[in-house]
Amino acid sequence: MEEITERVGNIAISNEAPKKNRIQVSSTKKPLFFYVNLAKRFMQQHEDVELSALGMAIATVVTVAEILKNNGLAVEKRITTSTVDMRDETRGRPIQKAKVEIVLAKSPKFDELMAAAVDENEAGAQEN
What we know:
Number of helices: 4
Number of strands: 4
Radius of gyration: 19 Å
Strand content: 25-35%
Largest sheet: 4 strands, mixed
């Protein structure tokens, strides 16, 4: 019983609520433009969006951020890199994974560009 109490005492509990403007990107679960469109929606609701990824998904996060920046929708606010200690599920040994967090803010032209995209989509729908 004492061993269980000791292990429970080592658990770190965070008082922080999960961020409502964070997108955790996976390298295999969703297509690239799912994350691009999701980030656009998040930026419509919030002033900024945080894109987060581990390991192989880092390339996807960087690509999403670059697409948003190159289209004039976002500006880079902050980039954070770190390593995270994890357990290799197949071998059961501890491993370190690279982690990146990219915070993007709405560009000054964000609302204007999004309105133009909606107008284009409506015009295309009327032609069909």
